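User: Hey, quick favor. My workstation is busy. Could you predict this chain's structure for me?
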Amino acid sequence: MLSLLIIELFNIGNFEKTIQFKLFKTYGLEFGTLRKILFTENLLSTSIGLILGIPLGTLIGFAISSFGLDLANKASYFNAYLEPVVYVIILALFSFLIIGGFITELAFARRTVQLTSEVFKSKRKKFIRRIFTSVESLLLISGIITFIIGFLGWRYIPDSLYIVFAVLPLLTTFVFLMIIGILLTLASLFLILSRLIVYLWRYIGVKIWQKRKSYFTLALKQLATYSKDYNRAIFAMLLVSLCISPGLVLMKSSNDHLAIEANLKVGFSDICVMSWADNDSMLMESISTIIGVDLLTKVELVEIRELGIIKVANPDNRIFDVNILNIYNVSEFIEIISPNFPESCKYPLADISELETNMTYMMSSKFAQKNNYDKNETYSSSEITSLTYATYNMIFINKFDYFPLVPYKSSNFLTRLLEDNYNLVMSNLTYSQLKYKFDETTRVLYESYILVRINPTANKTLLVNMIESLPYPIRVTTFDNELNALKLEQNKFALVYLIIITIISFGLISFYGILTARNIYKQKMRIIESEYNIGAKKHQIWLNFSVELIFVIIIPIFISVIISSILLYYIYDIFLGVQQTYKNFVPWLPVWFIALTILFCLVAILGGWLSELWIQFHKYKPARQE
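Assistant: No problem, here it is.
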């Protein structure tokens, strides 16, 4: 961030650069010497930014981790600087800023010192060649190649290597290459988008001015004439706005996600008893006699994993991992979960009650959609049982995105699922007919739970203590306990840092508003004088300029906010370190919030823009007419 600020301060605007380059040409400076000057300038500005920015960022991060954050179980903050990947990232950023700034300035210098005939010749280029300059093409090609190398390395690590070795550093390297490729590609696309937006408003401005004359259409017409002046502002809005949404969205999104995750872990019950042996039949009777316990039921999570050993019962050498939630009493189960059953579930409680019918099931939605399972679709038990036994055709009831106590398995950039996996929910009546039909090499694991509903007037803490005091090796938990545990696992440092980045981004947007206002004002002095001489008021000219800015930046801000919102789906579990055990993370992002974020961005840039314009117009003295 600091590097971008310093680069902008050294390059206040294209207007000053144009004058400098033309003076260099007038004085006879060779282009080779100018090229060395530009490289040295970018080297100095980037070095100053990194030399000041890295210690500043380290101190801010250390302050965040030291005050108010429980990082007792985390590694030392400064130990991260012992990791080689940190220096690779710093070197990559350093090289990107120097080379990117140098190539951009060099291309601009070449255009500035062109002869008049060369300028007209360049204007006759085809539209595609005007959009794809050398800078955009270089960034795009580099980004695509880097991403492909990282993706191929990440995707095609042999399973044997993945299983035998701890390949997290290797995966991290490939993920880093993918991220660099994405950033380079985004930079190229943002540059291309900035040019396309300029051409769009140029076309619209000319057409509207031809049909109607007013101050509003005059603003669009001026925008069409001087649209290139806004290129840097457009690119800045595309880049900086990308950093705004995560800090605003993830705070609420993470809280909502952790709440539903904790609720799923306790099975939507008031009290959940875990880690108990199935043969402790007296445990349920002992709990039921406690005053304050209204109802309890037993459920069982069964993991069935086929390891892919070639045999008669598994001729296709299948590898799968299936979780089955075995509900012993469906009606009691519904009665217990109904008070805490969220409205966001896409299946009604009535569908769960249909599981009381023999040979019925519910299936995880991802696998159901992939294999086109629908209402009353049959599922053959031979998918998981040995082919030497008789098979059953079970009837599909509904699919679910998440279900109490059923783990949600998904892969991210740093993990990989080696099996085809899905989840089933059925009654004990159905499961009991499949229980003894698995092949001898199929691994079957059981985990039993007791879900407890308590009286609303009962003391939950007291009841938990009473259940824990029973002479059984059990673990008793509640929603509050699990929620607190999940919050402790969350990377609070990253979350606070994202919020700080959001605040810095708003400051950067205001800063770009100031720079853009100063640059545009200096470039349009002749227009200001001519409009003032024909009777226009300062506030009218001021308003025209503001209309230009709003029309120019509204599209890039919208695009950038949407892109950052999409990226939230993929960075949450890696960046914040919260496991998605029972539910996939879905960011909280209503349409009104996107509109409000765009409005805040507009307010931030207009704050800097209007304040700078007010200063410039306040100092403006109209030229005297002879």
